[in-house]
Amino acid sequence: MTSATSHDDDHQEPRFILYLQGAAYQTAIRHLAEWVHFALLPLYGKEETPSSPWCPLWWKHPEAVARLHGLFMAWHDLTSETYERSGPSSWHRDHLGTTMEELRDPRGTLAGCKAGRHQAKEAPLTEEYTTPPKSTADSTRRTTPEFIFYLEDDGYNAELQKLTSWVRYLIMPYYGRERSSDAPWCSRWWEHPEAVGRFHALWMAWDDLTGWDTDLTGPSVWHRDHLGPVLRALRHPAGPFAGCRPGYHRALAPPRVEPFPRDAPPPFTPAPTGYLPDGQGAFAQRHYPPPLRQ
User: Fold this and answer.
1) Cα(97)–Cα(82) distance, rounded to whole angstroms?
2) Cα distances (Å, whole numbers) of residue 161 to 73, 130, 172, 175
3) Three-class secondary structure of residue 248 per DSSP
4) For the residues of 93-142, what is the DSSP string, one character each?
5) 247 and 187 in contact (C-beta within 8 Å)?
6) Tell me, what's the pLDDT at 141?
7) Where are the domains of the chain?
8) In whole angstroms, what is the distance from residue 11 CA to residue 24 CA?
9) What is the rounded distance in angstroms from the CA atom of residue 78 to the CA atom of residue 64?
10) Which tens digits make up the pLDDT trace of 31-62?
11) Rounded to whole angstroms, how far apart are CA atoms 237 and 243?
């Protein structure tokens, strides 16, 4: 993809802001604030209402900083003169709408801010995961990324240790909205297999889409296609944390499954080949309305 046009010498190309610290972070957020204040809000900032909250001190909300910076990077990549002519339309369709909908959702990170008043929200607590003792075999080394459910024993525990650190020190501080009856949470989330699977997949996508060598649209795509669906599924009122309360973990029992019988007949008789020329099988058993008369 193309490189962004630089504003000045200290800002050659955007890099996702969650990787930056110190002076580099201050430089990045200063440029982000200029873009939000002089481009994004004048052009796309809808009026503040109870159903569409906003905070004038948006940079004090970590989630807003992360999402807006991802949107800023996608803007650089898709609206420059060197990009194809459909780039701006793609930015509006694939990045602007979803970012603003998430930020200005009445239950989102800006929900507590009203009439120019900033209200910070605390992220749900996450307990520290303790790795079980290692065995004598060294199974923790992996040369390529691998989904955690393929790992066993020490390999699984070592990967889970790293995953819990990533969730505790990045996901929850930046994206962990307050716990409520509509958005449950479990401080011992790693005891829920579904949460382990979804968070690990989210982490793998993070590595793939937010590094130095990824497209500038990567962070925005990660927010849209990966972060949002994962958090909505995990924190749904009927999701895996539905039975958990602050300081109390409760695993939900999975639905019961009966053993599959060895002599179970097939649900229909498949045709040997082609499109059922002999009038056999499931397709032939369907009833269709008669054709309309002309």
Assistant:
1) 23
2) 31, 7, 16, 20
3) strand
4) IIIIHHHHHHHT-TTSTTTT-BTTB----PPPP-PPP-PPPP-SS-----
5) yes
6) 40
7) 17-103, 122-256
8) 9
9) 21
10) 999 999 999 999 999 888 888 999 999 999 99
11) 9
Q: Contacts from 100-104 at CB under 8 Å and sequence distance 24+?
A: 100/44, 100/46, 102/67, 102/223, 102/228, 103/63, 103/64, 103/67, 103/68, 104/46, 104/52, 104/53, 104/54
Q: What does the block give as tokens for 147?
A: 């989904």
Name the residue with tokens 């650190």. 165
d(CA 82, CA 19): 27
Entry pTM = 0.77
| pLDDT score for 125 | 63
Q: Which residue in the block uniquely carries the two structure tokens 């008789």?
A: 269
Convert the pLDDT of each residue in 145-198 to its tens digit. 689 999 988 889 999 999 999 999 999 999 998 888 889 999 999 999 999 999
How would you classify residue 287: left for phi > 0, otherwise alpha for psi between -120 and 50, otherwise beta? Answer: beta
Contact 13, 4 (CB under 8 A): yes
Q: How far apart are CA 132 and CA 153, in angstroms?
A: 9
Which residues 6+ apart lie within 8 Å of 255 measured at CB? Answer: none
Backbone angles phi, psi at 248, to 5 degrees: -135, 120
Q: 73-91, pLDDT tens digit by residue?
A: 999 999 987 678 899 999 9
